[in-house]
Each structure stands twice: as C-alpha cells, then as structure tokens.
Amino acid sequence: MVGIVGYGAYIPKYRIKVEEIAKVWGEDAEALKNNLLLEEKTVPFLDQDSVTIGVEEAQSALRRALIDPQEIGAIYIGSESKPYAVKPSSSIIAEAIGAIPQVHTADFEFACKAGSESVFVCYGLVKAGLIKYGLGIGADTSQGAPHEALEYSAAAGGAAYIIGEEDTLADILETFSYTTDTPDFWRRDGEFYPRHGGRFTGEPAYFKHVLGSAKGIMKKAGLKPNDFTYAVFHQPNGKFPLMAGKRLGFSMEQMKPGLVAPKVGNTYSGCSLLGLAATLDVSKPGDLILMTSFGSGAGSDSFVIKVKEKINKVRNLAPTVQEMLDDKIYIDYGKYVRYRRMIRS
Amino acid sequence: MRDVAIIGTGMTKFGELWDKSLRDIFVEAALKAIDNSGVKKIDSMYIGNFSGGLFVGQEHLASLLPDYLGVTPIPTTRVESACASGALALKQAFLEVASGFSDIVLAGGVEKMTDIATNEATYGLAAAADREYEAFQGITFPGLYALIARRHMYEYGTTREQLAMVSVKNHKNGAKNPNAQFTFEITMDQVLNSNLIADPLRLLDCSPITDGAAAVIICPAEMAKEYTDKPIKIIGVGHATDTIALTDREDITTLKATVEASKRAYAMAGIKPEDIDLAEVHDCFTIAEICAIEDLGFVKKGEGGKATEEGLTLIDGKIPINPSGGLKSKGHPVGATGIAQVIEVVAQLRGEAGERQVKDAKIGLTHNLGGSGGSVIVHILEVM
Lengths: 345, 384
Known about the structure:
The complex is a heterodimer of chains A (345) and B (384). Chain A is α/β, with parallel strands linked by helices. Chain A folds into 2 domains: 3-169 and 314-339, Peroxisomal Thiolase, Chain A, domain 1; 172-311, Thiolase/Chalcone synthase (Peroxisomal Thiolase, Chain A, domain 1, 3-Layer(aba) Sandwich), CATH 3.40.47.10. In chain A, 35% of the residues lie in helices and 25% in strands. The radius of gyration of chain A is 18 Å and the shape is globular. Chain B has 384 residues and is an alpha/beta fold. In chain B, 38% of the residues lie in helices and 18% in strands. Chain B has helices at 22-37, 52-56, 61-69, 85-98, 118-125, 141-156, 160-174, 188-193, 221-224, 256-269, 286-295, 304-309, 326-330, 334-349, and strands at 4-11, 44-48, 76-79, 105-111, 196-198, 201-202, 212-220, 232-241, 278-280, 363-370, 375-383. Chain B has a 9-stranded mixed sheet, sandwiched between helices. Chain B has a two-stranded antiparallel ribbon with strand order 5-6. The chains are: A alpha/beta (345), B alpha/beta (384). The A-B interface holds A 28, 31, 35, 197-200, 203-204 and B 16, 18-19, 114, 117-118, 195-196.
C-alpha cells in the first residue's frame, strides 16, 4: 500500500508574542488571543527562507525514511513565499539533499494548500508505479502586513513527506480534493503583501471547502468522525480548525495534538502538514488520522492515514515538533521587522 | 388625501448573503411582496438605500431596480435619509397614493454591505454622520452612541447591565425570527464580556453589518379588500430632523427628531403613546433603544433602562419593543431596516407573527432613525 515512508518538520527558533505586536499598534492583546486562539508565532532569521526550511524538513524526512536520496523520483515544493517568481525552489532542494540528477521537480502554488498538493501528486506517481519514492514539501515564510489582522498569524515553517510503497510508517488509505473558484485571499504579481476579503474568508471559503472535503472523504471511505483517532485541519488561527472540527463531529481530544497554530502561527503551505507531523509524533500503530488542508482560491485536500508499526522505530530519528516548539528564543518587534526585511539598512 | 393600506409584504433573510448581489436581494424581496399582495401591476416604486455608491459602487438604483425587477417603464425613486431611508421610502410612497397620483406603489429598501472590508463599511457608515466635523475628527458611529450612553448613565443612572438587557431581549426575540441574521440567544455575561468597541459599548451592544432587502405594497384603503383579507392601514406618519452632528444637540440624551416625529404621527393618527400595542424601534446600539422608548413617550425620560430591566418591553410586557429581534438580532441592512420594521408590525397586526406574536395587537408603531438622530420617520399602523 502507498503511504508515508518518512516525514520531517521544521520550525525556526525565533518567536514573537501576540502581546509584543499588539503593544506596537495599540491593540487589545487579550481580545486577540481569545478570538484567534493564537499566543505567539515563529519568525525566520535573515538567513532562512522557504528553501532553507524545505531543506531542513527534507533532511529530517530522509533521516526517518532511511532511504538513499538517489532513489527519490520526484520532489515537489508548495510555497507562497518562493524566493524567486521564476526559478524553481525544488531544484535547489533536490541538489541540496543529493537527489539529482534523475529526478522530476516542480514548484506548486495554491495558497496554503500547496504543500498538501505536493504530497498528493507524489502519492499519485508512486501509486501509478512511475517512481519509487516521491518527496512532497510544504514550506513558507509568509509575510503579514503591518497593522493588519494577519500580522499576528503569518509564520514560518512546515513539513515534508516521503511517499513510497515499501516499508511505510503510515499508509494513505484514501484521498479527496474539493475545489471551487473562490477568491478569498490573493497576492497580485509584484505586490509585497497579500490581500483578503475579510469575513469572506470564513464561511464561503475556509468552512465551505474544509467541510466539503472532509465530508467527501468520509463518505468516499465509508468512515465517521469517531472512527478516527485524530483529525488535523488547516490552521489560519487556533479558532477556525476547532470550529470546523466541531461542526464535523470531532472532539477536542482528536484535534489537540495536531493543533500547532497557538504556538506557531499559520505556516501557510506548511500548515496542515506541520499539524500532521505533530500528530504522527505522538501517534501509535493502528491510529487512523484525517488530514484536511485548505488553500485560498480555494480548495481542500483530504487524506485518510493509518499509522503502522514502523513509526515507533523511526519517530525519534529526527526532531519532533514538540522538541522544536520548546527550542525557542523570544524577540521584540524591532528584531521582528529586521528579520522579516521590513526595514533595511 | 385618501386613506392608504398595506396589502402585501416580502423580505429576504437578513445576514451575510455572500452569494447574492444588491440587485438579487432587491428583486427577491420585491417579488415576494408582489406575490403576497396579489397585485398584477405596480404604478411606481420608492426605494430606500443608504449607500449603493460607497458599498458596491452603484448609484442610479432608480433605473437598475425597475430594470431587474422587470417593471420598466414605471417611475422609480431612490430616497436616502441614512438609516431612515426605508421609512422615508414608505412615507413618499404613502404620499403618492394618498394624493391620488398613483394607486399601487411598492415601497422597498435594500442594502448590500458585505462586498467590502469591515473598515471600508465603517467608512461608508460614517457618511451618516457629519463627515467633516465628526468623522474627520476621528469618531465613528459606535463612538457617537458611546457618548450618548455615557451621558445617559451620568444623568439618569442607567447601568451597563440595563444596556445589556436590551441586547439579551432582542436576541431572545430574534431567535424566533427565521429571517433574522442571528437566531441564537445570548446571555448578560456574554454581552458584558464581549470585545470592547467604544467604551461603554461592547460588540454585543452593536447592530451588525448586514445584507438584506424588504418591500411592501400599498394601495388606497378603499381598494385594499380586493387584494387581502388583512389589510393594514397607515394612520400616522411623522417626519422630523435635528442637527446632524451630535455636538450641536441641546441634550445628547434626548433625540428631538424622535420626539417631534412621533408627536406628528400621534397627532395625525389621533392617538397617544399609551394606545400603541407594540413598536419596532431603531436599536442600532442598545442605548438607542433606551432613548427611543423614552423619546417616543412610552416611558419618562431617563427611565428607559429601568423599564427594560423591569421587563416592560418584553413580548408579553406592557409595551413590547422589537419583537422581531430589532436591529441587533435581525440585522441592519441600512436602507432596508425601515421597511423590515413595518413588515414586522404588519405581521403582528395580522396575527401572523408565530412565536413572536404580541397578544391582541391592534395598533403598532415603527421608529426609523438616521445617523445619530439627524432624521427620524415614525409610522403608525392599525388593523383595518
């Protein structure tokens, strides 16, 4: 059965708290924290970008997969913060991890869903027998505009997944994609910051697609919420995934391990993949996991994943999400705008 | 002047109607009203719309709406009096029928507010205040009503809890209104702990941003029974203005336009406040309802908070206020609100208000107010 052979997450060390940002703009930190269920977010350093983060994730995934990178037949990265508008990130990562030259690579974009798409396509190629292993990466260092709602959540990080058919640590039992043309959030070519439709990003965008995809996969697979051990949803903040999960019939216990947003923020293309990694870190063989991503524009990819014995052997071969969550340094707003290149010398 | 009756009503659900445009919702409400009335043609239309221009970049509704409703070449007039636009549409329609100029007239209201960001909507709403001397100086609508609330609390001892009770009551009523934006009840605690908007007003003291449309069909009273068994007569119309800017008022806790408009309406109807069985008043903010029930003469000045606390304004109270859920729970699509208020009173007087029914309702009042009280139109309706 086709499934996950290795996985790796990466979260940068630096953090900025909601209070620190709110202080600068004169906003009510407590209200923001309660409304969004966000406490702090990750901040990449000056020498980090979605490519370096992608490399870290891929290397961790390789450590758990215990495979020769030369055997990877495809490498895809999904990101909204590519260093180049034209020049692949995936080829840089391919060379950095020693997978070149016999490999197919491409960069994907579908807002926050681009990471799960990379995994989706790898799954398809492996299942078709065209490649032995495929590496799907979600990595972002998204920008939040100053004094704007998304400044509190736009964060950096993500996770990568090596898909294969032999010796998997978790199997992918089912997939389901749900897509419409719903322009809730976008960034025009040449603009530095994205724009969004305010409340339009809620019910007609996030909830319509997450619920549509999750219900679709459960119907297709003949499963109900209480068949699952865990559920992971895309997390633009801490509130939305819990509301979606509740409406679908999932409990807090099922969603808790995968809910990384309160301590990380929204890692955009890396988001649901990061939540999945955090869930795999604590899962047991036999556990059934539902993962539903969301990308503005809009669409959701769902996966049903069954954890296998191998997870216990390889889990600790690379840093867990919790270990990276605990390894943090708080910075102030001045350092934040410097590291995010919002001010330059 | 002939007597005028309402023979049909129709409205859309109020809420964030993401899939429907301004013309969609107007046509939906108008068709419902035409259907409900049984008329085969209409002679003219008056439409209340606060700001198609700022919210959706569309003016000339006077052509767009008859076009999309399919009733060209009838004359159509768009009227504007900020949040009182809906009631103004009914007043103008009333005059056209009462004068004998037309027989069947549609009075409607429509507002599409969710195609722009919240801060852009706030900018648009500030056009109901004095742009240069209020908005440019940094105040928004919640701010203006917060000033009224503060003064009311200072002068009369109105409490923060009494303000919250207005919201709790209106949500309780709105929960029974299938057309309301918010059909859930809320608690005092939730109101008092909701996000601070403009001290002392919190999120749950404020009416929301809403899409919606509403329409009524009117005709001469003598023709009404041809169309419906339950026509409702318009027996009083009162319209008054006051300074646009709050700072130019004599006393910011008394909205003189409400006092004057209701006085004229009572005089025309030949009745007193005590004769009113129920009223839909303009609760854009909780304090606005408290001031309204005082200025309409239902309770003494300063006792609006106490009256609310004592349950006088509940559906089974002495003077039921906002059985529809009010602007707070039903929603406030600015131009449509005035007509929606009329639709609620008509339903109540027809005995068709279901779980919200006020017993033995014979005479109802609607109070529609623009901005911070710069214009007010009051209608009084009676079972025929």
